[in-house]
Amino acid sequence: VLENQDLQDLIKPQKVEFRSLNFNSTLHWQPGRAREARGTVYFVQYKVYGQSTWQNKDDCWGIQTHVCDLTNEISDIQEPYYGRVKAASAGVYSNWSLSCRFTPWRETMIGPPTVTVVHSNKSIILKLQAPHSPYKRKRGSKIPMTNYYDLLYQVFIINNLLDEQHRVLVYEGKDKVIKIEDLRPGVSYCIMAKTYVPLLDRSSAYSSRQCTVL
């Protein structure tokens, strides 16, 4: 019996946590201390905070990977959720390992906007598009993140003659089309943008650099 108890403890999943980008939400965990235990499989359940019954995630029942996509199961973005994982190896089952409470609306990371650069002779015109959520309208198009948050765009410009770290904030606001004027012809400029959520005081990562020579 002792050996089984030891194995139970050794295979118990560690560090169960939600990670989420634009409401694409996955549960991640690390294997237990018995990393060499081959053939360990995992079982995932989830529930809304305050509910008594856990729901099985059928696609993540007896899996060998350490990640489970719960995007569709936790689509009520204002609700707090829990996930939990248990492991089985050689007929022995671990106890459940519980995640922290996770509320998608509060905790999802927002992605950067998509930036398209159109340049004329002394100015750069940018078109910005907010990231999309995984959730769809009735007609099938994905709902943009601007439906869920009051988003601002932050646009930065890098003059390539200057130091790479010298990023200048040239615009912050909601416009989707922005014109940056009074630029020098023949100089290479790079544009990067972020999405900013004032209510949560949270910024996205930078978008990929778009460079252009006027």
Automatic annotation (TrEMBL):
GO molecular function, one term: cytokine receptor activity
Cross-referenced PROSITE patterns: FN3 (PS50853)
UniProt KW keywords: Disulfide bond, Receptor, Signal
Alphabetized CDD domains for the sequence: FN3
A Pfam family that the UniProt record links to this protein: Tissue_fac
Domain Fibronectin type-III: 12-107
Superkingdom, natural source: Eukaryota
GO cellular component: plasma membrane
Family note: Belongs to the type II cytokine receptor family.
Protein name per the record: Interleukin-22 receptor subunit alpha-2
Native source species: Fulmarus glacialis (Northern fulmar)
